[in-house]
Every structure is written in structure tokens, then in C-alpha cells.
Specification:
The complex is a heterotetramer, with two copies of chain A and two copies of chain B.
Chain A (H helix, E strand, L loop, with lengths): L10 H12 L4 E4 L4 E4 L9 E8 L16 E7 L5 H11 L5 E6 L2 H16 L4 E6 L19 H15 L3 H13 L1 E9 L17 E4 L10 E4 L3 H15 L7 E8 L5 H17 L3 E8 L8 E9 L2 H8 L2 E2 L4 E2 L2
Parallel strand pairs in A: 3-4, 3-5, 5-6, 10-11
Antiparallel strand pairs in A: 1-2, 2-4, 7-8, 7-12, 8-9, 10-12, 13-14
Helix pairs in contact in A: 2-3, 4-5, 6-7
Chain B lengths: L4 H17 L1 H11 L4 H18 L5 H15 L4 H16 L7 H19 L9 H13 L4 H17 L24 H19 L2
Helix pairs in contact in B: 1-3, 1-4, 1-9, 2-3, 2-9, 3-4, 4-5, 5-6, 6-7, 6-8, 7-8, 7-9, 8-9
Classes of the chains: A alpha/beta, B mainly alpha.
The complex binds adenosine-5'-diphosphate (ADP) (2 copies) and magnesium ion (4 copies).
One magnesium ion (MG) sits at the interface of chains C and D.
Chain lengths: 333, 209, 333, 209
């Protein structure tokens, strides 16, 4: 394993120190239990939006803390959900009296840990609501799985709900909006090479020189199918089709297309893939109204990509366009 | 023999060593069908448990298990953190203020632990989770009449067999379920760690006889 | 080689198509010869700032085109400088009557191709000035080398000069400012693993599992020294010391610290390294006044990082803070 | 024999084939001490030259070389693009409007090419660049009196020896200079391509005799 680290057991804490130094105008890192909070938290009278999950997906979630997006992020160890303490500490720091919305990616660990924290907070009379995001169409949502995973759609959800909270929507309205986003967003990812978790020291799965893993998660979990490597056309089509079928997205739909690098795929390739996805959508009469391209929901240095489609309407588009000021997403005044 | 708070604390410390010894094995099992952190998560958690026991000495078996529960919940994360945390918490609650444990209390505690895991995780037998180890452990314990050591030995044997039974299963809960059919032919890491913990507790009880 | 591409010979053209679709509000891609230009070019009365170089360093330079930064970028093939035609085409498209400043990284190929284009433009009576950036302290600037390479400092130069052009500085003032930036910026990079150029198909150099390459360029050129891998503390110190000695940077200096990922190093590690660099600078009484952290000057999927230090004064800080709206850097109104 | 525009165009086409055949070798040489693009850059450029010759038929040797020059400049990029481009441009200019080339014109053209490369790239003999192949080529051509084919054969032999002489050198120009001492023990890719081009031209001239 080759990494720019000192000790696998202190990677997250050391990285958070650097994050704070790099963005002290935006965020503060509270140590023990570790929480990244907006520098001006709590914002009185605003619904606080809190997310979190294992580390190794940067810039999600710490790089998404700031005005117009998250009030706090709870970073767990690499690829391991945070503990209830962290979530509780986050809730305490950011609760501005208008309630707290927890955005949880649908993994057993994340759900259980956030659930525990929510129970504890409610016992303290803090109004807490939870939204679980499960946009990964690679996983069948059935009795036979833990349900779909939360992947790329999480960033879109956090941006849109963050904007709603910022404009003053109350907790019930934020929850309703979040449910609307979750209902209209779908993702699918693939990998050409596995990431290496610092405390494991070797790649999370082994792929042959001619293989790719399709339907991959963001934690180095193997995907649903191992296939021969394909070219960009084939890869993009294979990601897009199940997404389109699932919702389904149909002719005339207005969408946000999010082309995400898993970390190790360079922008040169990512833009190439994005161009293909745009063409395939145009061919079907689906209107790409907004786009996001880059490494936003990563899996350490994993080579690969994911596509996410969100169905837009005027309100969602307006909330997407609303000002945001975080380390990773920044626009508007 | 009786089983006091000190005995339980000693058993937990011994279990922490077992977890550390098997860290890499559990990582490897989880790497195959999960995300490779189970061994590291438990090591971190049981390390913290040992530290907690170094600085406070709870005076009943139930209080020891409650400290274990709270520490695991706040340090393990992942699926295993809340699940093991709830298991130890329910066991602690079931034991109440009892100063010493006999075989009946031990059986009650394991039963409560299983109840907690199922309540939190909603897994059934055959879903390829720690429930597949814990459920036969409870059944074996219930069927045994004998000393604490004998009850725990039966539970450990049940857990061991139950863990082994997860190998051919297709996972229906937890991260391994994403793999579908590809999750078969692998030992479930959580079932394995449950079997390891119970085996360690049984050894501690046996040594204390 | 595993990449999300179709055909190595069309990678750049296909990627540019995706870039344009992703950022049509900011830029237009002119094909044959390929140039990325500001969507509103030419801007009348403003000095036009043009850069370019081989592809594979994204987001540099195409992702830096937009108000407050570049008017045009000329993307060559992967790791190969663009041709004079491209530079000429860029000059033609963006010349707003106030002259054109060419920002050229100091590589023989880049210098010769831009030089040829500048000669041709001058023959057409376009006022053209060239600034060559050579911030890489890994290369000795002597008679025995092609001179220092242009690396991370390029992004800082483009931001600052772009802001000056945007506020209305004339060509001579832009050149003087650019010279000041070049005089005060230094960089050094390292790699843990080599990139793979699509038309080559195998890694640009071979590194053992226990080796790192220090003093690396951004084109997969091997570095000056191959050393045993070190931890993050050692790596950061080894990059920072030659930078500090070279200018030199001394106690009380105000600086911008740019911690750059070469592409394959994830943000988790990059922030960790950034934190170390901040601490080492604080230890020496050097004041980090601004920072940039992320993959901005990359070498495809190369794992590794570089550090860049720029000495700041009030004017440079103000120009750094000035609004910018590009795919990769965006702040201010 | 005389050397007409058609002969020169045919020689350039043959050279394009040689470049394509040696693409991987040149990439490999450049990968060792540069950035691995030299073979691909030249292949792209000479491909474009062939296309240009397919669509226009310049009527003097100088006009052919001028077309080659312009095409290389606008398609090769990197260091080799402007350097080879200038070389062919200066050669073209030196030939003026001559309809046929004799040995003296060929020598003048090679000399002008060297002058162009040195003017653009400022490299001297021993810097481990294409100049190390071109300079001995010029000297060999100047020292030879004979047919066009003989002059080119001498130049090619000189270039070949000159290219070989770059192996032990430490580079002082171009990308290889960044490597310092580590650039020694490698053949310079540009010197190698120069030798390949001259050898191909010599073969074409010899075949045309
Ligand atoms: N719903 C559940 N009920 C019971 N046990 C579960 C459940 N989900 C997962 N597990 C257990 O947790 C183990 C994985 O734990 P761990 O790797 O620490 O968490 P994570 O999957 O979050 O990385 C599995 O091997 C399984 O035994
Ligand atoms: N200043 C120079 N003068 C003459 N030849 C040079 C000079 N710099 C580089 N070269 C030649 O160019 C070759 C490299 O060409 P190429 O790989 O196409 O360009 P780049 O170095 O830009 O990738 C070198 O092998 C060398 O022979
Ligand atoms: Mg996990
Ligand atoms: Mg796990
Ligand atoms: Mg090159
Ligand atoms: Mg080269």
C-alpha cells in the first residue's frame, strides 16, 4: 500500500485538521467525537441539516458544509459509519431551534447509528427528522437485500435540502422536499480498480487486467457483476440504462445529470464519459437542464465512475441554482 | 463457582485479546463480502472497552456489560457497533442488579442479547448475519442444564456451528446482501466474531471453575 | 491499461465535447484546431489571457476558462504541447483590442510552439506578450537543463493575472504583474505511482512497491530521485524544504499555500498533507494567508502531490480574492 | 538521376511509413527519459503529411518540403513539431524554386535544416538531442562528392553514428535534461528519429537510381 499518511489509525483525525486549516472561513472541526460544523453554527431559526458517514468519500460530507448546504457532517473512520455520539454532538452544535434533519445513506451501519442518535436527541426534546437516501439501482430493493444504497444522489439531496433550509423552509417542508428528491433520483456506478483502505493495506477487491466491476458501491464492496472491460460508450450505456428504466425517466423529462468520478478516474476521462451520457439522453428526448461533473462522491482512489440522474421541476432547479458556499460546491453570491 | 463483576470484567478483557488476535481474519472475511472493516471496528471498540475498564470498576455483572455496551456503541460504528452495543445493553438490562450470575442468568443474558440484535437489525435465521450464530447459541444454552461454564460452552459450540452454517448462504441483510448470489461460499464476519466472543467467554468461565 | 475511453487518438476531442456540454454557460469549444474560449469572447477592451499545454492536467487549463481567469485555453494531445495553429486560433478568437498575454509553462515544446504562434500574430499586428512560468524547484535552472518546469504555480499565475486583466489592467501592467508572480512562486512534486498515457498504454515509469519518485514533473517524466517511500511527514518536509530554501521564503513572509493532488491521491490524504505543511510553515513563522487544496494541476491518474508557495502582498491577495467563475475555481459574485 | 518534386514526395511518403513502423520504439525511448509521446507525435504528423500530399501536388521539391514543414508544425506539437517543422522549412527555403535537386542542393538542404534546428532549439552537439544526429549528417554530406543517393547515404550513416553517440550522454536540452545524470545510458528519441528519416530518404534515393 502506498499512501500519503502517517499512521492508519490517525488518518481521519489528521485529515480533518488539514480540512479545518484549509477552510477555516467555512467550517470548524470539533474533535472527540469528531464533527465538522459550519463556522457560524448554530444558525438561529433555521432548520439544521446534518449528514455523515464513513470517511474516504471526500469531498462528501465535510467539503459540503457551509451556507446553503450542510450545517454539520459526522465523519466516521474510513468506510465505517460514524457513531451515535458523533451524530448527537453534531445535533447539539447546530440545532438552531427549528429542528434538525438527518440525511442518512441507506447502509445498515449508517441507519442504525443515526437512528440511535435520533432517539437520544428526541429524548432531549430536540425536534429531529431523518431522511434515508437509497438511489443506487445496482441493488435490488427487495426483502432479500438491505435495500438500495445511498450513493451519488446524496450530494444532490444535500444541496437542494440545504438551499430549502437556508431560505427558511420549516422541518416538515424540508422533509417533504427531501422525500421528493429521493423519489426522483437514481444512480449506478462501476470500477476499473479497487481502492485500498489504510487499515486494510491491500485493495478491497481484486480485479483482473481485463475486468471491470459493475454496480459497485462506494465502500470498496464488490459490485453485482464482474464483466470484461468495455470502452467508454459501453460503460456509459451500461450505467445509464438501468437508471432510466428504474424510475423510469422518459421523453420530455427535465433532469440534472451528475457524472461522478470515484476518485482515481481523471477529469479527461470523466468529461469524455459525460459527453456520451449527454448524447444518449438527448437521443431519448430527455432534457439535461443542469449538470455536475467531478469527483464528489468518491471511494478513496478507486478508478471508476457513477452516473446520477435527478428529475427536475422548477422548484428543484431553483434550489439547485441557489447560492452555496462550501469547500467543494460554491456558486451564487 | 459464582460469576462476579470482576469475573465478567476479566472475561471481557480476555475477549478483547481474542478480538485483537483475530482482527486480520475478520478484516479478510469482511473484505470478501463486505467492506473490510469488521476486524478493525471491533478491535477499536474492544480496545476502548479495556480502557474504560481500566478507569472504572462497575460493581455488578450488569454494570460491566452496560459499560461494554455504551463503549461499543460510541466507538465501533458500522453495523456491528449498534448491534453488539444493543446486544450487551439488553443483556445488562436482563441481569438487573444481580451481584453474581448463575447458569440461568447467563442463559437469560444471551437470550436478551439475541432479542436486541433482532430488534435492531431485523434479521432472521438464514439471512447470513450474526443472528445465525446467536440463535443456535441461545438454543444450545437453553437446552443445557449445568454450570455457567457448561452453559457457555454449549452456547459457544452452537455459535460455532451456526457461524459455519453461514458459508453456503446468500446474504439478505447487511452489506453482503448487495452481492446477491456472490455472497455464497463465504463465512459471515459477524457470525464469526459472535462465535469467537462466546468461545472466549466460555474459556474464561471454564478457567474460573 | 484500464481507462474510460473509446479510442486513444480521439480522447482529447471527445473529452472537450463533454467539457463544453458540462459548462456551456462558461465556455465554448472550437474544434480544428481545438481551442476552449470564454463564451463571451472577445471581451472588448480587455487584455485577453491565453494559456494551454498538453492535455491530461485537467482542470488546467480548460477548467480555468471564464470571467476573472483565462479567455482561452489551447489543449494539446495528452502530455504534448499544442501546435502554433491552436494558439493562433485562440488569439484570433479572444483578442479584444487590448492585446493578448500568453501564459506558457516552461517546456521546450510549449515554448517553441507558443513562440511560433506569437511571431505569426505579431505579423498580423496583434499585440502579443508572453510570460513563461518556471516554478519547479526540482529542476536546476542552469545551462545544463532546459530550465525549470512550469507546474503548480501556473494556476496561481492564471488566477491573479486573469483578475488583473478583468479589472482593466493594460498589457504592460499584466506582464509586470505576471513577472512578479513568477518571481515569487515555487513548487515541488512527488509521485507514488505513475500515470498511463492512453496512446502509450502502460505506466510512464515503473516504481517498485517501496519506492517513490521525488521531483516529478506533470508529464510522467521521471523525477530527479527515486527514494524509499516515506510517511506523510517525511514527504511533506521533503517537498517543502527545497521550496523554502530556493526563493528563499523566510519568517514573516505572507504566503499562499497550494496543496495539489496529482490526480490519484484522494482528498483524505491531501488534506492530511496540507495540515502538515501548514504546521511546518507556522513553525518557521511563515504566515499562510490564503490556501488552495485539491487536484488542479494533475498528471492523469498519477498518485502523488505537489506543494506550491506564492509570496503574497496586499495587491496579490486582493487579486487572488477577486471574483472568478470557471469550472474549477469559482468564488465572489 | 534527377530528384524531382514527385521523387521528393515519394520519399516523404516512404518516410511516413518508416515513422509508423518505428512508432512504438520511439515511444519507448521517450518513455525512458521523456514523456513517451515522440513516436505518437511523429506518427500523427507524418500521417497528416501523407493526407496533405494526397490532396495537393506541390510542383517543386522546395514546395513539397514547405508543405511537409507546415503540416508538421500544425500537427506534431511538443518539441519535435517546431524543430522538425523549422528544419523542413529552412530546407525548403534553401532550395528555392529549383525543379530538380542534385547532390549539392541536397547537402545545402540538410545544412539549412541543421541551422533551423539550432536556431530554434539552441542545442549544441553533445546536448543529447536531434542535433547530435543532424550535425554529423551534415559533416558527412559535405565531405562526400557523388550522387544524391551517395550524399544521403553518407548523411544517414553520419546520423546513425551520431544518434548512437547520444547513449552515454547526459541531456542538457529538452525534457530528458530534467533527469540529470539519470538520462545517461539511453538513446535520445529525437536523434533516433532523425537517423531513421535520413536512412529512409537515402533508401528512396538509392532505389530511384
Ligand atoms: N441487519 C443485521 N442484523 C444482524 N446482523 C447484521 C445486520 N447487518 C449486518 N450484520 C452483521 O454485521 C456484520 C458486518 O459488520 P461491520 O463490518 O462491522 O459493519 P459494516 O457492514 O457497516 O461495515 C455482518 O457480517 C453481519 O453479521
Ligand atoms: N532544444 C532542443 N534542440 C534540439 N532538439 C531538441 C531540443 N529539445 C528537445 N529536442 C529533441 O526533441 C526530442 C523530444 O521530442 P518530443 O518527445 O516529440 O517532444 P517533447 O519533449 O515535447 O515531448 C528529444 O529527444 C530531442 O531530440
Ligand atoms: Mg463498514
Ligand atoms: Mg464491514
Ligand atoms: Mg511531450
Ligand atoms: Mg516527448
Amino acid at each position: 500500500m502506498k499512501k500519503i499518511i502517517n499512521d492508519p489509525s490517525t488518518v481521519v483525525a489528521e485529515s480533518l485538521r488539514g480540512l479545518e486549516l484549509a477552510h477555516s472561513d467555512l467550517l470548524t472541526v470539533v474533535p472527540e467525537p469528531a464533527v465538522v460544523v459550519r463556522v457560524d453554527a448554530p444558525v438561529r431559526g433555521k432548520v439544521a441539516v446534518v449528514s455523515g458517514g464513513g470517511s474516504g468519500h471526500e469531498p462528501m460530507h465535510g467539503g459540503l458544509v457551509g451556507p446553503g448546504m450542510l450545517d454539520a457532517a459526522c465523519p466516521g473512520p474510513v468506510f465505517t459509519s460514524p457513531t451515535p455520539d458523533q451524530v448527537q454532538a453534531a445535533i447539539e452544535r447546530v440545532d438552531g431551534g427549528a429542528g434538525v434533519l438527518l440525511i442518512v445513506k441507506n447502509y445498515t451501519g449508517d441507519v442504525l447509528n443515526f437512528e440511535t442518535a435520533a432517539e437520544l436527541a428526541q429524548a432531549e426534546d430536540v425536534e429531529v427528522a431523518t431522511i434515508v437516501i437509497d438511489d443506487d439501482v445496482a441493488v435490488k430493493d427487495s426483502l432479500y437485500t438491505a435495500g438500495r444504497r445511498g450513493v451519488g444522489g446524496t450530494v444532490l439531496l444535500e444541496k437542494i435540502v440545504g438551499a430549502a433550509a437556508e431560505r427558511g423552509d420549516d422541518l416538515a417542508a424540508c422533509v417533504a422536499l427531501a422525500e421528493r428528491v429521493v423519489a426522483g433520483v437514481r444512480s449506478m456506478g462501476m470500477a476499473l480498480a479497487a481502492p485500498t483502505v489504510p487499515h486494510v493495506g491491500e485493495p478491497s477487491f481484486d480485479l483482473g487486467e481485463d475486468e471491470m466491476e459493475v454496480g459497485i458501491g462506494i465502500h470498496g464492496e464488490p459490485g453485482r457483476a464482474r464483466l470484461p472491460v468495455d470502452n467508454a460508450e459501453g460503460i456509459v450505456a451500461r450505467l445509464l440504462e438501468p437508471i432510466l428504466e428504474d424510475l423510469p425517466f422518459t421523453e420530455g423529462d427535465r433532469v440534472l445529470l451528475f457524472t461522478n468520478s470515484m476518485g482515481g478516474t481523471p477529469l479527461l476521462e470523466l468529461y469524455l464519459a459525460h459527453g456520451i451520457a449527454e448524447r444518449l439522453l438527448a437521443d431519448r428526448g430527455i432534457v439535461v437542464e443542469r449538470r455536475l461533473v467531478g469527483p464528489f462522491v468518491t471511494s478513496l482512489e478507486m478508478q471508476g465512475m457513477s452516473l446520477t440522474l435527478l428529475r427536475l421541476d422548477d422548484e428543484l432547479t431553483e434550489l439547485w441554482d441557489a447560492p452555496v458556499r462550501t469547500a467543494a460546491l460554491r456558486w451564487g453570491s | 463457582m459464582g460469576c462476579t463483576a470482576a469475573d465478567v470484567a476479566a472475561a471481557v478483557r480476555a475477549a478483547a485479546e481474542v478480538v485483537a488476535e483475530h482482527r486480520d481474519e475478520l478484516v479478510e472475511l469482511d473484505r470478501a463480502i463486505g467492506d473490510g472493516d469488521h476486524g478493525e471496528n471491533l478491535r477499536r471498540g474492544f480496545n476502548a472497552v479495556v480502557s474504560a475498564l481500566d478507569t472504572s470498576t462497575p460493581d455488578t455483572p450488569g454494570a460491566v456489560l452496560k459499560l461494554v455496551a455504551k463503549t461499543l456503541i460510541s466507538t465501533v460504528g458500522g453495523a456491528a457497533g449498534p448491534l453488539y452495543g444493543t446486544a450487551f445493553l439488553r443483556a445488562a438490562t436482563a441481569l438487573g442488579d444481580a451481584a453474581e450470575l448463575g447458569p440461568a442468568e447467563v442463559t437469560t443474558a444471551i437470550e436478551a442479547a439475541l432479542g436486541g440484535v433482532v430488534a435492531r437489525g431485523k434479521a432472521a435465521v438464514g439471512d447470513k448475519t450474526m443472528v445465525d450464530a446467536l440463535d443456535p447459541a441461545v438454543r444450545a444454552a437453553t437446552a443445557t442444564s449445568g454450570s455457567v461454564a457448561e452453559v457457555l460452552a454449549a452456547a459457544a459450540a452452537g455459535a460455532q456451528a451456526g457461524a459455519a452454517s453461514t458459508v453456503p448462504l446468500v446474504a439478505r441483510k447487511g452489506r453482503a446482501s448487495y452481492l446477491g448470489e456472490r455472497s455464497a461460499d463465504h463465512l459471515d464476519p459477524g457470525a464469526r466474531s459472535t462465535a469467537l466472543l462466546l468461545a472466549s467467554f466460555a474459556r474464561s468461565a471454564g478457567a474460573g471453575q
